[in-house]
Structure prediction request, 1266 residues.
Amino acid sequence: MLGATAVNLRYFFYPIGNTPAVNVLQDRFRSANGATDDGPVKVLFLACGDPRNLLFSLWCESNTDEQTKWEFTCCDIDAAVLARNIILISLIIDGASLTSTWNIFYHLYIPDADIALLQAQAEKLLLQSDSISRWTSSVYGKAISFLDQDTLHQLRGLWAKYAATAALNSDARKHFEVTIRREIKKTYDRFQENYLNVHGLRSVGPNWTGAIDIVSSCFSWFWETGVVAGNSQDLQELNSSQGGHVNPMFAISSSSTEDFAVHYGSEPLLGFHLATAFDGEISSKLEQTNVIVQVAKSQFREWCKALQAHVKLQTIEINFFWGDALRFCYELQAICDPAKHSTMLARTYRGPWLSTRMCLDGLESHAAKVAYDVIDTSNLIDHVGILNTLPAVAPLLSRRSTSVLFTDSLLQAAEDPVATLPALLCSDVTMISLILGLAPTGHLVGYTTDAVGTEAATRLACPGVSGRQSQYYLRIAWKLPNFGDRLEEMASKPLEWEIRSSPEELSQYFFKLYLAMFSHEDLSSSMTTMLRRTFSPLAVDLRHYNRLSFVLLLYMAKSRFKTDWPRLITSLLDRVESDRQLLVGSNSVQELYVLLHLFGLFCTEVLQRPPREIGMTPYGRPRPPSADPGLLGRSDVPSIVFVALTVPREKLEVFTNQDRNTVGTPGLHLSITNMEQGFDNSFFAIQCFFGRLLPEANDDSICNVLADDRGWGGAADLIVTCAVPTWSLLLGTRSSLMVALTVSSTPATSQYTHTLGPRMAVFASGVADDIVRFLREPPGVRFISQSDELQSRRNARFVSQKPVWIHFDKSHKPQTMEMRAFPKASPGDKKLSISQVLPCTLNVNCQGFDDIQLTYPYPVNGDEGKTRIVSEGYIEVTVPFATALSRGGYNHNPFPVCIQGTQTASMSIPHINMNQQPIIHALDKTDWIPGFFGWTLSGRERRLREQKLLSTSSHGMLHLKSSINAIFQSFVGLNQSYGQMQLFQLSCKHKNMSCDTLIFASALRHNLSQKSIVLDAYVVPLTKQRVSKMASKLVHLVKSGKVLNITVTSREEELLWKQLLPALVECCRGTWHHGQDCEYRKQGKIPLSTAHCESAICSCGEYQDANGFPGHADWADFKQYATRIGIMPLSAVPYVEQLLTDEQRDQISRMIGDLSMSGTSDGIRCGHCGTTSNRLKRCARCGKLLDLRQGEGRLDMMRWPRTKKWRPIFLRVATLSFHHGPEVEARLLEKPSRAPRGRRLFGPQVSYPDRAVKRTPNCCEGDVIL
Prediction:
């Protein structure tokens, strides 16, 4: 009922993941000294797919002294996915051969020994799972559990099929093998050898340009040979078994037709991190492929061993549920909060096209289970819409500063990524965040450590195929908006606010949201929009929403906002009824009234009273009871009934008699018309399933269901049901009523007009016989009594302690927040001032009063705050909202670190297990780094650099990025003037080049989870006391000529470094912990200090994890003061800022056009000398192309031939190089012939002057090419 209902005869099976594994546990507090928390870390995987994220996350959190317990809950609508997952996990628990386990889970064809192992494992699971109690007492029961009996029953059916298929006799097996192999070949043939598929570039990491050809080949070889990348070792093993057997784990799925249904884009390598396979010299394809496969297999082995360790320690529990993710979430909400039982309509059935009711056996007694520390929704929003997903999921997230909800999207939602969130949310991002109580972190802080530029670069080079949905992978973390305000330090319980606003302003906002959600009902859309939807479809063009989606948003808003709700809804309904923009929207008004009533949001008189008691409706008088048999003729007929239409199977042939590839996914809804009364009501919140209705013997208004589990592949009729207002069914004569299953009208469904007629009715019937039934409750479901509960919801009062008023601007976007302070001291001279102390917290100083701190529910801009003292004696403080691109908010401290007891965590930079990140040894092969860093900039930042418009005072973040870039490039030796450097000093230009920080770089590593890189390093703060103590050592350091000076250009950049360093310490903190004497705890602040020559970090980490400290003899004395850090590139956020301005995008597009027209098989012409070359470099001053490195590819499954003519395009896009220019001075320190006067290098010490870097002329004299 929730979301759109559509015919989908083309089922796809997703047995393996299609994006690299991520660590969902990267943001949590780290326990101290091996201590355990009060309970396990709880993680919810929705639309979980394969278990790669679970396994990878466990591996990332291994090798520590923590005794953390883990509780994972995995939900998926496809039972075959869960059945495969449990086969895999049970094999790992049993300690089966990891080689065989890999083959069974990832290969299309497997040898004799593996097919026998699969059969034995499936039979073993069947034996142990004949009941929940039997399973619980089995060897697997302590680690794996099922949330209800139906889940176990469904999975047992699939395990039985695995076992039976593996045991087929020779004749049956031969038929099975021939059939499935033919289907696999057909799938492979869809993507011919001359075409590229390079989705795997996401797994490659930053050096993607060198992997384009091999990644595409790996995809083809998997489908051609049936083993990962067609590697020689596995092929030899298959050949020893006469080509092996079709793997039942791929051949068997939830398909109603039992056809081979694996999605054509599936490929095992997509879920792994393959960057290390491309670090060295690229070898032959065969050798390269074997390296790639070994990297993936090695990772798989390590993941499996991590899971085995936790199972052995009994520190892990994995719960499984088969069903729709959103309905599952609403059921969990209801278990946690009995007041939410009115959401019954959102969770009536287990899933779409199912008649099984939602029921979690026994979970009702464990309400505490439904508060999760991490929720990962995969790319659920692509399938059901973000506004259906977030209201269902957000209430289940625990209210801790480290709690996080992840949403992934693969479908491009907007032509410009910066418009993605407003387009998806149909709303201002800030307002939706207030409704949810969660905000996208990038929208608040403005940066990310994820390598998002790689996706942007490949998208630009591979714009997609006309008429097909383009991809743009975007992963968004949603957190409490005030996650950086040290919530756990300030209050023992989560802070809550009573958000208030005027009903009129809220009514205008929700009406604007209503128009956006149902914009497809605006038949007056411009021709430009219609053409764009045809030739460049976007995710927002998918019709995910119905009126139930909108009502559930209102329902959630009511739990967060206090206002005059009857007045708000009345005003909203007035706007909806008088609207003329959504031309067919009026047909859904009655459904809107019904849903508002069922959720206790609003009740009209005709729904509040029994319909037989109403003498007159707005449309006339009801007919007498004697005219209606059954429920409609009874005096106690409820005001809302459920219609159940039985659609004969033969009427569905309009879909089933077509080729499945041409049916499309036409949307369906119920229409109830009354020709006498002249109304036509549409109901989109419908439930469809196949089967037969079975009325109860003593009451035909209640029906059970005899379901046909074969669905579209069976023979039963289709049942369609939804809630309708009773009064509309009682008007006029009974014979004038018609109920129809109708295809929703869209340009894509116009093909059905010829067959079904202009009304697009698949089947229509009067109400004279049992084809149409009117029921008290949905078929097969028993509702609890709602009348008392709904009344209690309407009478419920919002109780809170912290009221905050929201004010809107003229465009109905939230503009300011207002809070009131009530001083307790006696008034004096009432001179007011406010200062911002945290992103969401202001300090209010009123002369004569004690200072008061006000914490808002969202980041604020304190600089533009206004105060006034009201006659009643309270202080009114009004401040604008703050986002990443405005002043205030997290610009106050973009890198917050919070402490809770003995636990600390960086709030915006994710934690990584540094020792697990692979070292990049071949530093001479890292010429891709400038291009990688170039894509960390936004278009605005790039324009400022190119036009030299930088201001030292207002562009601190850009200066910080430039300094980090300079450190990375200097470490790998890209500047030929001074080669590879390991020691850096941060010298403040505004402090006469005084230095108070040394950074000793140890190793360049891959950052697997972020698909980025990280510099493993150590920081030594140079306080005045330390400088005095080590003066001679510091002077010797300078004399060595091994120090590279990184100029900190302004106080703003210095402040950012001071705020960043504690976060860099926490992001890689491993086995050491903050003690009771930690300076953070004593002083109650992080960073400790932002003053020059004072340390920003505590001393707990000094000399910890120091084995990797560089072994240079002259540096040994600094090791005792060194704290390990992980320096990560900071990237602009594509949904916040454009990574390319329109002008920059057009310029690159023109270059691509020129290359596609003029490119040759030998390369393109150098912009300086005119010769052709296959290596690309760009002059740091003039920007001319000097060389071009070979590479090729498209990120999409595109229809471009693989010719050398296209090779330059991808490298040209990739090399928006980030060279540290004049705003970042990287200079080598040497002993001078004479020390100048007045210069300070280390704190108060006199420094030696910098020696200017010699620059080697190339194509432009005096400029350096990096």
Summary: The first helix runs from residue 52 to 60. DSSP finds 39 helices and 41 strands in the chain. The radius of gyration is 32 Å.
